[in-house]
Design a protein that fits this description.
Order of helices and strands: HHEEEEEEEEEEEEEEHH
Distance between the termini: 191 Å
Largest sheet: 6 strands, antiparallel, barrel
Structural class: alpha+beta
Number of strands: 14
Helix content: 25-40%
């Protein structure tokens, strides 16, 4: 339609008519003269509006979902990050508690043996050094670590330092087949040499083939000359099996090490040896034996001449036995009274003179 003077006048006229109809409809209320026309228009155009709405709503919803998806994605990402942070915090708290326990136990061991130690953390295991049982710790020469230093933890002997870098060092574990340490028995002071066997117990060869060894005996390090590579008194392990000597000059026993080599975390490198041998002071105290309950058995004679066994605390008094004893005493007393009635003079006095014996009177 062209933009002409007539078209503009027509547009103005239509707008005026529309305003007039709106005014009449509002003033008329429920009795509006255009209500019938409105209802007719609703009946005609209502189905058309519903059809158009059903066709357009999915598109509108999709557009709204696309518009809101960015916000939802951001919210989900925030929640995921918060969840991961909470999990990491919980995990770190558990690990920190475990590390605190390990450090506390190790410091107590060092104090008992008067060892000067440098704490370190295990940061790698064996692959970089070949197929041997080794670990890498985060302490090196700048921390005062030197080769052939003893390494321990809160449980006992871990190994010895083999190679040292500026910031790291390699520790050969006590269960490595190339590892050997001198040992001493806690109870008998028998000397020997412990050798690693991988994931099996340590093999200890005692120098005395007739040494008396029993299951549960404990071993500590004997120490080396100048305290390298081993300081004395570090707990090694506990005897779990003893092989018969068979007349050999030496004797083999198998020892379960105190240290768990597959889950090392906090360790200590002994940078200063003790002034004196701590002997067995670093070993943990032995558990107190559980007392064995005892049963007391008391044997008492019964009224019928038999024997009655009594266990534990004494039983209540036997009332039947007491009644029998009372009756016996009453019968005895009654018999004595009858005897006195038959012999009023009483019992015959005993002879206490020579005449009573010889029949003569010395007077």
């Amino acid at each position: 339609m062209r933009d002409t003077k007539e078209s503009r006048l027509l547009l103005v006229l239509l707008i005026a008519i529309a305003f007039a109809l709106i005014t009449v409809d509002i003033r008329g209320g429920e009795e509006s003269p255009v209500d019938g026309a409105r209802q007719a228009a609703a009946a005609v155009f209502g189905p058309v509006e519903n059809g158009v709405a059903s066709a357009v709503d999915p598109v509108g919803n999709a557009i709204g979902a696309i518009r809101d998806s960015g916000e939802r994605h951001d919210r989900i990402a925030v929640l995921e990050r918060e969840n991961a942070a909470l999990k990491a915090r919980l995990g770190s708290d558990d690990r920190n508690r475990s590390r605190i326990r390990q450090l506390d136990s190790m410091l107590k061991k060092a104090a008992s043996g008067q060892y000067g130690i440098k704490g370190a953390e295990v940061i790698a295991i064996g692959a970089a050094q070949g197929f041997s049982w080794t670990v890498t710790i985060d302490a090196g020469s700048v921390d005062g670590i030197r080769r052939d230093m003893t390494v321990l933890n809160g449980d006992g002997l871990v190994g010895r330092v083999t190679t040292v870098g500026p910031d790291t060092a390699t520790v050969l574990l006590a269960n490595d087949p190339d590892f050997t340490v001198g040992t001493r028995m806690e109870r008998t002071d028998e000397l020997g040499f412990a050798t690693g066997q991988g994931d099996r117990p340590l093999s200890v060869q005692l120098l005395n083939g007739k040494a008396k060894v029993r299951k549960g005996d404990r071993l500590v390090t004997f120490g080396s000359q100048a305290d390298k590579p081993f300081v004395p008194g570090v707990p090694v392990g506990e005897v779990i099996r003893v092989d018969p000597s068979g007349g050999a000059l030496t004797r083999n026993v198998f020892v379960r090490p105190y240290a768990a080599f597959t889950k090392l975390d906090i360790v200590g490198v002994v940078v200063q040896a003790p002034r004196t041998d701590p002997r067995d002071a670093v070993l943990p105290p032995r558990p107190k034996p559980t007392p064995t309950p005892t049963v007391t058995v008391t044997v008492t004679p019964s009224a019928d001449g038999g024997v009655r066994a009594q266990t534990g605390a004494p039983d209540e008094p036997d009332r039947d036995q007491e009644q029998d004893q009372d009756q016996d005493q009453a019968r005895d007393q009654e018999q004595q009274e009858q005897d006195q009635d038959r012999d009023p003079g009483g019992p015959t006095p005993r002879a206490n003179s020579t005449a009573a014996v010889t029949g003569r009177d010395d007077e």
